[in-house]
From TrEMBL:
Alphabetical UniProt keywords: Membrane, Transmembrane, Transmembrane helix
Domain of life: Bacteria
The keyword Chaperone is annotated on this UniProt entry: no
Lineage, uppermost ranks: Bacteria, Pseudomonadati, Bacteroidota, Cytophagia, Cytophagales
Chain segments annotated as transmembrane: 12-34, 40-60, 72-91, 97-116, 128-144
Name listed for the protein in its UniProt record: SRPBCC family protein
InterPro entries linked to this entry: START-like_dom_sf
Membrane as UniProt keyword: yes
Amino acid sequence: MSSIERSNFHYVIAVIAGLLVALLGRFAFATRLLNDAGGLLMLCFLVLIPMALGATTAHFTPPTAKWMWRTVWSPFLTVLLFLFTALLLHLEGLICVLIISPLFLVTACVGASLYIRFTENRPDRNKTYTLAAFALLPFLMAPVESQFAAPNELRRVENTVVIAAPIDVVWQNIIRVLPIQATDLGPSVIDKIGFPRPVEATLTHEGIGGVRHATFERGVEFIETVDVWEPQRRLSFSIVPNTATIPPTTFDEHVTIGGRFFDVLRGTYELEAVGAGHTRLILYSQQRLSTRLNPYAGLWTDYVMSEIQRRILTVIQRRCEARGNKGSLSSHKQKEQAN
């Protein structure tokens, strides 16, 4: 009985030790010294810290444990505990936790597997040295990584919808977007993780130089200056977040639009008549992504932008088709009265 309890105690120690390594990394990379170099978006934190977590759990897990427990389940449990702790202590927002969780889970398992491979059939002293190397590597490599600037990548996200309405009706519904209710948008995952819903888009005047004010919930506003105005063909504008109206609590620091890691630069609507009374409407945007893990981060930013654009197009489609149907009914009644 005592041996079983002692074995269970080793499992608890393994998880706690891995949690402490991750928390130490979280606080260290959030300091001003490392934050200026990228902080929690440095590869040393996103990749090497979870690898150190995995190696730590593998080191303290009893060697008699099954291979899957040492390399998968123990690191998984420790990562989930770390992410829960970060949420509980308000160290990170839900958005950031969701973004880093797949990366942490995979790299923690990699770290555990590498540790076991490097230390298999080695004396305990070598195992301790190997664990120390995993734990120190993120902090030793951080000054090296800080010497390299994060790359800037421009990404384009495009959504398309075919609307059963004439092109002039669609045009009138995109230059200005009347207030949107939550029921108009329907449910979406991005609502649940904290992204504000779009509310409306106003326009000061038609033509080049007109300024659209695109507002979202919780005080989020974007100033969109029209620089391409081709009636019933194309509307394009630059986008600048109105930082004066956006509360600091709306977005996490690492996903703030207009921040050093991410920005939305442009938006464009293109219209094309397709068949009798139908219009193809294309909405695409250009974003800047500036992280050391752009291919991975881009998967998330592309999804969020695509979902925002899809919902806006859906609202426009419903409004245009409802207006088109009313116009058709009115025209039909007039013909009947004339006859």
